[in-house]
Structure formats: C-alpha cells, structure tokens
Amino acid sequence: MRHPCASQRGFTLIEVLIASAIAIASMGLLLQLFGSGLDRLNRVSLSAHRIVAEKEIINRLSTINPALSSKGKGVVEGLKYSWKVKQLKPYQHVSPTLGEIPYPRYVALYQINIELIRQDGYKSQLEITRLGWKGTP
Fold it and tell me: Rounded to whole angstroms, how far apart are CA atoms 14 and 89?
C-alpha cells in the first residue's frame, strides 16, 4: 500500500509563501514605475501648457510699440502676466525707404520684462528685446 502523501502533487505552504512574497515585491516595483511615469506625464503636461501660454503672451506683446506702452497685464489660459518696458539704447534716426511714411523715424532698443503667475502662486520671469519707434525723438 502506498502512502497517501506520496501520490499527491502540489505546492507546499513554504513555496506558496515565497511565490507570494516575490509577487508582492514585483507589484510594488511596478506601482512605483507607473507612479513616477504619471508624475512625469503631469510635469510634461504642465510644461506644455506653460509653453503654449508663454508663446501666446509673446505674440500679444509683439503687437505693441514699447516706445508708447510702458506696462500692462493680462491673463492667458489661467496664467496671469504683467509686463514692464525698459529702454536699453538711445533713439537713433532711421532714414525712410521707398513706400514708407515720408517723415524721419527714430528707433530704440527696449527690453520687455514679463512676470508670469500660475494659479498655484508660482512666479517665473521672461525677457524679450525688441525695437520701439517714434516719429520724433
């Protein structure tokens, strides 16, 4: 007569416990990987949103003449911004070319400092440089 334990096939309790411990450790590592991936995705999304808003702000400020407007503020996609103008170079005379207005034009180089404020209160700075113009100095 055979012993009943010898004919049974299966896993012992120790084998099941070891396999469970390995599976739990693997799941912990996978969850950390997915969590950091989601965090990176969130940071990339915020950066992309900020870049789109900054581009829109720069497009808006490209339509102003810094010689005539010295400061302002606005909101783009939930991002508040304010800007101030600082003259960097003195005015210089520029001769008109064909097709332009026939009076002398004077141009100067300006720096536009932009302060961005996100909804969470985080502040950042941008600077752009462009020409401003006047009909007379």
Answer: 81
94-108 residue pLDDT tens: 876 656 666 658 899
Identify the CA nearest to 81 among candidates 40, 109, 53, 111: 53
User: Within its chain, how far is the Cα of 2 from the centroid?
Assistant: 75
If we measure between CA atoms, which residue out of 77, 79, 109, 76 comes closest to residue 94? 109
Domain definitions of the chain by residue range: 4-134
First-to-last CA distance in the chain? 117
Whole-model pTM: value is: 0.65
Let me know: does 131 contact 93? Beta carbons within 8 Å.
Answer: no
3-state secondary structure (DSSP) of residue 38 = helix
